Amino acid sequence: MKRFFFFLAVIAGVLFQSNSVLGQQLDRAHTLKIYNWSDYIDEDLLEEFEQWYEEHTGEPVKVIYQLFDINEVMLAKIEKGHSDYDLTCPSDYIIERMLRNGLLLPINKDFGDTPNYIGNVSPFMVEKIGKIDAPGKNPNDYAVGYMWGTSGFLYNKAFVTEEDLSSWSALWNPKFEGKILMKDAPRDVYSPLLIYANYDKIQSGEVDIEQLMFDMSDESLATVEELINRSKPNIYGWEADFGKEIMTQNKAWFNLTWSGDAEWAIREAERVGVNLAYTIPEEGSNYWFDGWVIPKYAVNTKAASYFINYMCRSESAIRNMDVIGYVSAVATPEVLEHMQEQSIENGDTQERDMTYFFGEGAENVILNKVMYPDKETFDRLALMHDSGDRTQALLEMWSRVKGDNLNPVILGIIAAVVILIAIIVISRKSKDKKRKSKNGKNTKKK
Protein backbone atom coordinates (compact mmCIF):
# COMPACT_ATOMS: atom_id res chain seq x y z
CA MET A 1 0.00 0.00 0.00
CA LYS A 2 2.93 2.32 0.65
CA ARG A 3 4.00 1.79 -2.96
CA PHE A 4 0.49 2.67 -4.11
CA PHE A 5 0.48 6.03 -2.34
CA PHE A 6 4.06 6.71 -3.47
CA PHE A 7 2.93 6.07 -7.05
CA LEU A 8 0.06 8.52 -6.69
CA ALA A 9 2.38 11.14 -5.21
CA VAL A 10 4.74 10.81 -8.16
CA ILE A 11 1.87 11.25 -10.65
CA ALA A 12 0.54 14.28 -8.80
CA GLY A 13 3.99 15.81 -8.54
CA VAL A 14 4.66 15.47 -12.25
CA LEU A 15 1.31 16.91 -13.25
CA PHE A 16 1.40 19.85 -10.88
CA GLN A 17 5.00 20.60 -11.71
CA SER A 18 4.04 20.75 -15.38
CA ASN A 19 1.21 23.11 -14.47
CA SER A 20 3.45 25.35 -12.38
CA VAL A 21 5.85 26.01 -15.27
CA LEU A 22 3.09 26.58 -17.82
CA GLY A 23 3.65 29.76 -19.73
CA GLN A 24 7.29 30.00 -18.74
CA GLN A 25 9.72 30.00 -21.64
CA LEU A 26 13.30 28.80 -21.57
CA ASP A 27 16.03 30.30 -23.64
CA ARG A 28 16.96 26.83 -24.84
CA ALA A 29 19.95 28.07 -26.82
CA HIS A 30 21.50 29.08 -23.51
CA THR A 31 20.00 26.42 -21.23
CA LEU A 32 21.51 23.04 -20.40
CA LYS A 33 18.96 20.50 -19.16
CA ILE A 34 20.62 17.65 -17.26
CA TYR A 35 18.83 14.54 -16.00
CA ASN A 36 20.89 12.57 -13.50
CA TRP A 37 20.69 10.16 -10.58
CA SER A 38 20.03 11.62 -7.14
CA ASP A 39 23.07 12.13 -4.88
CA TYR A 40 25.40 11.64 -7.84
CA ILE A 41 27.39 14.86 -8.23
CA ASP A 42 29.02 17.68 -6.30
CA GLU A 43 26.27 20.16 -7.04
CA ASP A 44 28.61 23.14 -6.57
CA LEU A 45 30.14 22.10 -9.88
CA LEU A 46 26.91 22.95 -11.70
CA GLU A 47 27.06 26.66 -10.97
CA GLU A 48 30.82 26.69 -11.52
CA PHE A 49 30.31 25.09 -14.93
CA GLU A 50 28.11 28.01 -16.00
CA GLN A 51 31.00 30.41 -15.43
CA TRP A 52 33.57 28.00 -16.94
CA TYR A 53 31.45 27.53 -20.07
CA GLU A 54 31.10 31.27 -20.65
CA GLU A 55 34.82 31.76 -20.16
CA HIS A 56 35.61 29.09 -22.75
CA THR A 57 32.90 29.78 -25.33
CA GLY A 58 31.90 33.41 -24.78
CA GLU A 59 28.28 32.26 -24.40
CA PRO A 60 26.11 32.23 -21.26
CA VAL A 61 24.43 29.03 -20.09
CA LYS A 62 21.97 28.19 -17.32
CA VAL A 63 21.91 24.65 -15.94
CA ILE A 64 18.60 23.04 -15.11
CA TYR A 65 19.33 19.92 -13.09
CA GLN A 66 16.66 17.25 -12.51
CA LEU A 67 16.83 13.86 -10.80
CA PHE A 68 15.71 10.28 -11.34
CA ASP A 69 16.06 7.14 -9.20
CA ILE A 70 15.39 4.42 -11.76
CA ASN A 71 16.93 3.97 -15.21
CA GLU A 72 13.61 3.00 -16.73
CA VAL A 73 11.90 6.19 -15.54
CA MET A 74 14.54 8.26 -17.29
CA LEU A 75 14.28 6.14 -20.43
CA ALA A 76 10.48 6.42 -20.58
CA LYS A 77 10.63 10.21 -20.45
CA ILE A 78 12.96 10.28 -23.43
CA GLU A 79 11.66 7.30 -25.40
CA LYS A 80 7.93 7.89 -24.98
CA GLY A 81 7.73 11.48 -23.78
CA HIS A 82 10.34 12.86 -26.19
CA SER A 83 11.68 15.01 -23.32
CA ASP A 84 14.27 17.48 -24.51
CA TYR A 85 16.99 16.74 -21.95
CA ASP A 86 20.40 17.70 -23.29
CA LEU A 87 22.30 15.25 -21.13
CA THR A 88 21.64 12.22 -18.98
CA CYS A 89 23.67 9.52 -17.26
CA PRO A 90 22.18 6.03 -17.66
CA SER A 91 23.68 2.70 -16.75
CA ASP A 92 25.45 0.41 -19.20
CA TYR A 93 22.50 -1.72 -20.31
CA ILE A 94 20.27 1.33 -20.81
CA ILE A 95 22.98 3.00 -22.90
CA GLU A 96 22.97 -0.21 -24.93
CA ARG A 97 19.19 -0.07 -25.37
CA MET A 98 19.18 3.63 -26.27
CA LEU A 99 21.95 3.12 -28.79
CA ARG A 100 20.21 0.17 -30.40
CA ASN A 101 16.95 2.13 -30.63
CA GLY A 102 18.50 5.25 -32.17
CA LEU A 103 17.91 7.42 -29.09
CA LEU A 104 21.41 8.90 -28.78
CA LEU A 105 23.36 11.58 -30.60
CA PRO A 106 27.14 11.41 -31.07
CA ILE A 107 29.23 13.48 -28.67
CA ASN A 108 31.25 16.28 -30.25
CA LYS A 109 34.78 16.06 -28.83
CA ASP A 110 36.22 19.04 -30.70
CA PHE A 111 36.46 21.87 -28.16
CA GLY A 112 38.64 24.26 -30.11
CA ASP A 113 41.15 25.94 -27.81
CA THR A 114 39.68 24.23 -24.74
CA PRO A 115 41.64 21.10 -23.71
CA ASN A 116 39.96 17.78 -24.42
CA TYR A 117 39.66 16.36 -20.92
CA ILE A 118 37.67 13.37 -22.19
CA GLY A 119 41.08 11.85 -22.88
CA ASN A 120 41.47 11.58 -19.09
CA VAL A 121 39.04 8.65 -19.04
CA SER A 122 40.84 5.38 -18.33
CA PRO A 123 41.51 3.16 -21.37
CA PHE A 124 40.02 0.44 -19.15
CA MET A 125 36.70 2.28 -19.15
CA VAL A 126 36.90 2.98 -22.88
CA GLU A 127 37.33 -0.76 -23.41
CA LYS A 128 34.35 -1.61 -21.18
CA ILE A 129 32.09 0.89 -22.94
CA GLY A 130 33.22 -0.73 -26.18
CA LYS A 131 31.62 -3.99 -24.97
CA ILE A 132 28.17 -2.43 -25.36
CA ASP A 133 26.39 -4.48 -28.00
CA ALA A 134 25.22 -2.02 -30.68
CA PRO A 135 25.88 -3.40 -34.17
CA GLY A 136 27.22 -0.86 -36.65
CA LYS A 137 28.01 1.77 -34.02
CA ASN A 138 31.03 2.60 -31.90
CA PRO A 139 29.63 3.03 -28.38
CA ASN A 140 32.49 5.35 -27.43
CA ASP A 141 31.21 7.87 -29.98
CA TYR A 142 27.98 8.12 -27.99
CA ALA A 143 28.94 7.61 -24.34
CA VAL A 144 31.66 8.80 -21.97
CA GLY A 145 32.22 6.97 -18.69
CA TYR A 146 31.26 8.81 -15.49
CA MET A 147 31.27 6.39 -12.54
CA TRP A 148 31.74 2.62 -12.24
CA GLY A 149 31.69 -0.07 -9.63
CA THR A 150 30.72 -3.58 -8.63
CA SER A 151 27.85 -5.43 -6.95
CA GLY A 152 28.42 -7.37 -3.75
CA PHE A 153 27.58 -7.56 -0.06
CA LEU A 154 27.77 -4.66 2.39
CA TYR A 155 27.82 -6.27 5.82
CA ASN A 156 27.89 -5.47 9.53
CA LYS A 157 31.03 -7.01 11.06
CA ALA A 158 29.33 -7.27 14.46
CA PHE A 159 27.00 -9.96 13.12
CA VAL A 160 28.55 -11.34 9.92
CA THR A 161 32.02 -12.39 8.83
CA GLU A 162 33.53 -12.14 5.36
CA GLU A 163 33.69 -15.95 5.33
CA ASP A 164 29.91 -16.08 5.90
CA LEU A 165 29.51 -14.18 2.65
CA SER A 166 32.07 -16.04 0.56
CA SER A 167 29.21 -17.44 -1.56
CA TRP A 168 25.90 -16.08 -2.88
CA SER A 169 24.27 -18.99 -1.05
CA ALA A 170 24.47 -16.80 2.08
CA LEU A 171 21.24 -15.25 0.82
CA TRP A 172 19.26 -18.34 1.88
CA ASN A 173 21.27 -19.32 4.95
CA PRO A 174 18.58 -19.73 7.68
CA LYS A 175 20.71 -18.00 10.32
CA PHE A 176 20.12 -14.71 8.47
CA GLU A 177 16.33 -14.84 8.71
CA GLY A 178 14.89 -11.34 8.36
CA LYS A 179 18.35 -9.75 8.29
CA ILE A 180 19.06 -9.18 4.58
CA LEU A 181 18.41 -6.13 2.43
CA MET A 182 17.94 -6.89 -1.26
CA LYS A 183 18.60 -4.30 -3.95
CA ASP A 184 15.33 -3.50 -5.74
CA ALA A 185 16.99 -3.78 -9.14
CA PRO A 186 16.05 -6.95 -11.06
CA ARG A 187 19.05 -7.01 -13.38
CA ASP A 188 21.55 -6.39 -10.56
CA VAL A 189 20.14 -9.34 -8.62
CA TYR A 190 19.52 -11.62 -11.60
CA SER A 191 23.07 -11.35 -12.97
CA PRO A 192 25.12 -12.49 -9.95
CA LEU A 193 22.64 -15.27 -9.12
CA LEU A 194 22.88 -16.50 -12.72
CA ILE A 195 26.66 -16.55 -12.29
CA TYR A 196 26.21 -18.53 -9.05
CA ALA A 197 23.91 -21.03 -10.76
CA ASN A 198 26.46 -21.60 -13.55
CA TYR A 199 29.62 -21.41 -11.45
CA ASP A 200 30.76 -25.00 -12.09
CA LYS A 201 30.30 -24.55 -15.85
CA ILE A 202 32.22 -21.25 -15.74
CA GLN A 203 35.07 -22.93 -13.86
CA SER A 204 35.25 -25.81 -16.32
CA GLY A 205 35.22 -23.47 -19.32
CA GLU A 206 31.89 -24.80 -20.56
CA VAL A 207 30.29 -21.37 -20.09
CA ASP A 208 31.85 -17.95 -20.73
CA ILE A 209 30.90 -15.49 -17.99
CA GLU A 210 30.65 -12.54 -20.40
CA GLN A 211 28.36 -14.44 -22.78
CA LEU A 212 26.28 -15.66 -19.85
CA MET A 213 25.14 -12.08 -19.25
CA PHE A 214 23.13 -12.23 -22.48
CA ASP A 215 21.13 -15.24 -21.21
CA MET A 216 17.50 -14.35 -20.47
CA SER A 217 16.04 -17.73 -21.39
CA ASP A 218 12.94 -19.06 -19.64
CA GLU A 219 15.10 -21.74 -18.04
CA SER A 220 17.58 -19.23 -16.58
CA LEU A 221 14.82 -16.91 -15.38
CA ALA A 222 13.14 -19.84 -13.64
CA THR A 223 16.44 -20.87 -12.01
CA VAL A 224 17.08 -17.40 -10.61
CA GLU A 225 13.44 -17.02 -9.54
CA GLU A 226 13.75 -20.19 -7.48
CA LEU A 227 16.95 -18.93 -5.83
CA ILE A 228 15.35 -15.59 -4.93
CA ASN A 229 12.28 -17.35 -3.54
CA ARG A 230 14.56 -19.43 -1.33
CA SER A 231 16.00 -16.21 0.09
CA LYS A 232 12.66 -14.51 0.81
CA PRO A 233 12.39 -15.60 4.49
CA ASN A 234 15.69 -13.80 5.06
CA ILE A 235 14.75 -10.54 3.35
CA TYR A 236 14.26 -7.57 5.67
CA GLY A 237 13.29 -5.32 2.76
CA TRP A 238 13.76 -4.41 -0.89
CA GLU A 239 15.58 -1.12 -1.36
CA ALA A 240 16.45 1.17 -4.23
CA ASP A 241 18.43 3.77 -2.33
CA PHE A 242 17.72 3.70 1.42
CA GLY A 243 19.62 0.50 2.21
CA LYS A 244 22.84 2.29 3.03
CA GLU A 245 21.10 4.33 5.74
CA ILE A 246 19.47 1.22 7.24
CA MET A 247 22.84 -0.53 7.37
CA THR A 248 24.31 2.33 9.40
CA GLN A 249 21.48 1.85 11.94
CA ASN A 250 22.11 -1.86 12.72
CA LYS A 251 18.65 -2.79 11.39
CA ALA A 252 19.93 -5.31 8.83
CA TRP A 253 23.04 -7.49 8.82
CA PHE A 254 23.96 -7.38 5.15
CA ASN A 255 22.82 -5.81 1.93
CA LEU A 256 23.18 -6.84 -1.72
CA THR A 257 24.23 -3.48 -3.06
CA TRP A 258 26.56 -1.42 -5.22
CA SER A 259 30.12 -0.66 -4.18
CA GLY A 260 29.53 3.11 -4.23
CA ASP A 261 26.61 2.84 -1.80
CA ALA A 262 28.74 0.51 0.29
CA GLU A 263 31.61 2.99 0.48
CA TRP A 264 29.24 5.80 1.47
CA ALA A 265 27.67 3.62 4.18
CA ILE A 266 31.06 2.51 5.55
CA ARG A 267 32.11 6.16 5.93
CA GLU A 268 28.86 7.21 7.59
CA ALA A 269 28.74 4.17 9.87
CA GLU A 270 32.17 4.97 11.29
CA ARG A 271 30.80 8.24 12.63
CA VAL A 272 28.21 6.43 14.73
CA GLY A 273 30.41 3.54 15.81
CA VAL A 274 29.07 0.92 13.39
CA ASN A 275 31.67 -1.26 11.64
CA LEU A 276 30.67 -2.10 8.06
CA ALA A 277 32.63 -3.77 5.27
CA TYR A 278 32.13 -4.91 1.66
CA THR A 279 32.92 -8.14 -0.13
CA ILE A 280 32.26 -9.89 -3.45
CA PRO A 281 31.41 -13.62 -3.25
CA GLU A 282 33.98 -15.93 -4.78
CA GLU A 283 31.69 -17.15 -7.57
CA GLY A 284 31.87 -13.67 -9.10
CA SER A 285 29.44 -10.86 -9.77
CA ASN A 286 28.71 -8.06 -12.20
CA TYR A 287 30.44 -4.77 -12.72
CA TRP A 288 28.61 -1.73 -14.00
CA PHE A 289 29.22 1.77 -15.23
CA ASP A 290 27.16 4.88 -15.80
CA GLY A 291 28.00 7.17 -18.67
CA TRP A 292 27.12 10.60 -20.03
CA VAL A 293 25.02 10.50 -23.18
CA ILE A 294 23.18 13.08 -25.31
CA PRO A 295 19.58 11.98 -25.98
CA LYS A 296 18.02 12.19 -29.42
CA TYR A 297 15.71 15.09 -28.51
CA ALA A 298 18.43 17.29 -27.00
CA VAL A 299 18.48 20.96 -27.99
CA ASN A 300 21.74 22.33 -26.61
CA THR A 301 24.18 19.65 -27.73
CA LYS A 302 27.12 22.05 -27.62
CA ALA A 303 26.74 22.79 -23.91
CA ALA A 304 26.11 19.09 -23.29
CA SER A 305 29.42 18.12 -24.89
CA TYR A 306 31.26 20.83 -22.97
CA PHE A 307 29.72 19.65 -19.71
CA ILE A 308 30.94 16.10 -20.34
CA ASN A 309 34.40 17.54 -21.00
CA TYR A 310 34.18 19.58 -17.79
CA MET A 311 33.27 16.47 -15.76
CA CYS A 312 36.37 14.70 -17.06
CA ARG A 313 38.76 17.22 -15.50
CA SER A 314 40.82 15.78 -12.64
CA GLU A 315 39.43 18.39 -10.25
CA SER A 316 35.82 17.55 -11.13
CA ALA A 317 36.43 13.82 -10.80
CA ILE A 318 38.09 14.17 -7.39
CA ARG A 319 35.37 16.42 -6.01
CA ASN A 320 32.61 14.16 -7.26
CA MET A 321 34.20 11.07 -5.70
CA ASP A 322 34.74 12.85 -2.38
CA VAL A 323 31.06 13.82 -2.24
CA ILE A 324 29.27 10.71 -3.49
CA GLY A 325 31.65 7.80 -2.73
CA TYR A 326 31.57 6.30 -6.20
CA VAL A 327 34.60 5.79 -8.47
CA SER A 328 35.21 8.10 -11.39
CA ALA A 329 36.15 6.78 -14.82
CA VAL A 330 38.91 9.42 -14.88
CA ALA A 331 42.37 7.92 -14.32
CA THR A 332 44.88 10.78 -14.22
CA PRO A 333 47.98 10.90 -11.98
CA GLU A 334 46.21 13.61 -9.95
CA VAL A 335 43.27 11.29 -9.26
CA LEU A 336 45.59 8.41 -8.35
CA GLU A 337 47.61 10.60 -5.97
CA HIS A 338 44.50 11.98 -4.27
CA MET A 339 42.84 8.59 -3.84
CA GLN A 340 46.04 7.02 -2.52
CA GLU A 341 46.51 9.80 0.04
CA GLN A 342 42.88 9.38 1.12
CA SER A 343 43.26 5.61 1.44
CA ILE A 344 46.40 5.93 3.57
CA GLU A 345 44.66 8.47 5.82
CA ASN A 346 41.84 5.96 6.31
CA GLY A 347 44.28 3.29 7.48
CA ASP A 348 44.78 1.22 4.31
CA THR A 349 48.27 -0.28 4.10
CA GLN A 350 48.20 -3.02 1.44
CA GLU A 351 49.98 -2.24 -1.82
CA ARG A 352 48.31 -3.54 -4.98
CA ASP A 353 48.89 -3.51 -8.72
CA MET A 354 46.31 -1.15 -10.26
CA THR A 355 47.89 -0.76 -13.69
CA TYR A 356 44.77 -2.20 -15.34
CA PHE A 357 42.99 1.04 -14.48
CA PHE A 358 45.67 3.72 -14.02
CA GLY A 359 48.40 2.39 -16.30
CA GLU A 360 52.13 2.77 -15.72
CA GLY A 361 53.09 4.10 -12.31
CA ALA A 362 50.36 2.21 -10.49
CA GLU A 363 52.23 -1.07 -9.98
CA ASN A 364 52.45 -0.73 -6.18
CA VAL A 365 49.81 1.64 -4.85
CA ILE A 366 47.60 1.76 -1.79
CA LEU A 367 43.96 2.18 -2.76
CA ASN A 368 40.62 1.49 -1.13
CA LYS A 369 39.70 -2.03 -2.26
CA VAL A 370 35.96 -1.32 -2.10
CA MET A 371 36.35 1.43 -4.66
CA TYR A 372 39.15 -0.14 -6.67
CA PRO A 373 39.00 -3.96 -6.87
CA ASP A 374 42.25 -5.61 -7.92
CA LYS A 375 42.66 -7.30 -11.29
CA GLU A 376 42.18 -10.77 -9.83
CA THR A 377 38.81 -9.76 -8.40
CA PHE A 378 37.79 -7.95 -11.55
CA ASP A 379 38.45 -11.04 -13.66
CA ARG A 380 35.52 -12.69 -11.81
CA LEU A 381 33.11 -9.95 -12.88
CA ALA A 382 30.99 -9.50 -16.00
CA LEU A 383 29.09 -6.65 -17.66
CA MET A 384 25.28 -6.74 -17.71
CA HIS A 385 23.49 -6.27 -21.03
CA ASP A 386 20.12 -5.09 -22.25
CA SER A 387 17.57 -7.90 -22.27
CA GLY A 388 15.77 -6.51 -25.34
CA ASP A 389 12.47 -8.25 -26.01
CA ARG A 390 13.04 -10.38 -22.89
CA THR A 391 12.78 -7.36 -20.60
CA GLN A 392 9.10 -7.96 -19.92
CA ALA A 393 9.79 -11.56 -18.92
CA LEU A 394 12.46 -10.37 -16.47
CA LEU A 395 10.12 -7.78 -14.97
CA GLU A 396 7.31 -10.31 -14.63
CA MET A 397 9.64 -12.67 -12.79
CA TRP A 398 10.70 -9.83 -10.50
CA SER A 399 7.09 -8.87 -9.84
CA ARG A 400 6.26 -12.46 -8.88
CA VAL A 401 9.08 -12.84 -6.39
CA LYS A 402 8.31 -9.50 -4.77
CA GLY A 403 4.53 -9.89 -4.85
CA ASP A 404 4.10 -6.47 -6.49
CA ASN A 405 1.10 -7.27 -8.66
CA LEU A 406 -1.63 -4.65 -8.29
CA ASN A 407 -5.20 -5.93 -8.22
CA PRO A 408 -7.93 -4.45 -10.45
CA VAL A 409 -9.44 -2.44 -7.58
CA ILE A 410 -6.19 -0.58 -6.91
CA LEU A 411 -5.66 -0.03 -10.63
CA GLY A 412 -9.14 1.47 -10.82
CA ILE A 413 -8.42 3.80 -7.92
CA ILE A 414 -5.18 4.92 -9.57
CA ALA A 415 -7.00 5.63 -12.84
CA ALA A 416 -9.69 7.63 -11.01
CA VAL A 417 -7.11 9.72 -9.15
CA VAL A 418 -5.17 10.41 -12.36
CA ILE A 419 -8.37 11.57 -14.07
CA LEU A 420 -9.22 13.80 -11.10
CA ILE A 421 -5.77 15.38 -11.12
CA ALA A 422 -5.99 15.94 -14.87
CA ILE A 423 -9.37 17.70 -14.45
CA ILE A 424 -7.91 19.96 -11.77
CA VAL A 425 -4.90 20.82 -13.94
CA ILE A 426 -7.08 21.57 -16.99
CA SER A 427 -9.38 23.69 -14.86
CA ARG A 428 -6.47 25.74 -13.54
CA LYS A 429 -5.10 26.26 -17.01
CA SER A 430 -8.48 27.49 -18.20
CA LYS A 431 -8.77 29.93 -15.31
CA ASP A 432 -5.24 31.21 -15.91
CA LYS A 433 -6.01 31.88 -19.57
CA LYS A 434 -9.20 33.76 -18.72
CA ARG A 435 -7.48 35.86 -16.08
CA LYS A 436 -4.58 36.75 -18.39
CA SER A 437 -7.02 37.55 -21.19
CA LYS A 438 -8.84 40.04 -18.94
CA ASN A 439 -5.52 41.67 -18.10
CA GLY A 440 -4.75 42.11 -21.80
CA LYS A 441 -1.84 39.65 -21.70
CA ASN A 442 -0.99 36.97 -24.25
CA THR A 443 0.47 33.63 -23.35
CA LYS A 444 2.66 31.45 -25.51
CA LYS A 445 2.91 27.75 -24.75
CA LYS A 446 6.36 26.27 -25.08
What is this structure's SSE topology?
Blueprint: H1 2-20, E1 31-37, H2 44-57, E2 62-68, H3 71-79, E3 87-88, H4 92-100, E4 104-105, H5 123-129, E5 144-156, E6 180-183, H6 186-197, H7 199-204, H8 209-212, H9 218-231, E7 235-239, H10 243-247, E8 254-258, H11 259-271, E9 276-279, E10 285-292, E11 294-295, H12 301-311, H13 314-324, E12 327-328, H14 333-345, H15 355-358, H16 375-378, E13 381-383, H17 391-402, H18 408-438
Parallel strand pairs: 1-2, 1-3, 6-7, 6-8, 10-13
Antiparallel strand pairs: 4-11, 5-8, 5-9, 5-10, 5-12
Helix pairs in contact: 1-18, 6-9, 9-17, 13-14
Query: In CATH terms, what is the architecture of the domain at 25-148 and 290-357?
Result: 3-Layer(aba) Sandwich
CATH fourth-tier homologous superfamily of the domain at 25-148 and 290-357: Periplasmic binding protein-like II
Mean pLDDT across every amino acid position: 88
- Shape category: globular
Number of strands: 13
* Distance separating the two termini: 37 Å
Describe this structure in words.
This protein has 18 helices and 13 strands. It has 446 residues and is an alpha/beta fold. The chain has a domain at 25-148 and 290-357: D-Maltodextrin-Binding Protein, domain 2, CATH 3.40.190.10. Strands 5, 6, 7, 8, 9, 10, 12 and 13 form an eight-stranded mixed β-sheet that branches. Helix 6 (186-197) crosses helix 9 and helix 9 (218-231) runs parallel beside helix 17.
Key words describing this protein structure:
alpha/beta; 13 strands; D-Maltodextrin-Binding Protein, domain 2; 14% strand; disordered N terminus; 44% helix; three-stranded parallel β-sheet; eight-stranded mixed β-sheet; disordered C terminus; 18 helices; 446 residues
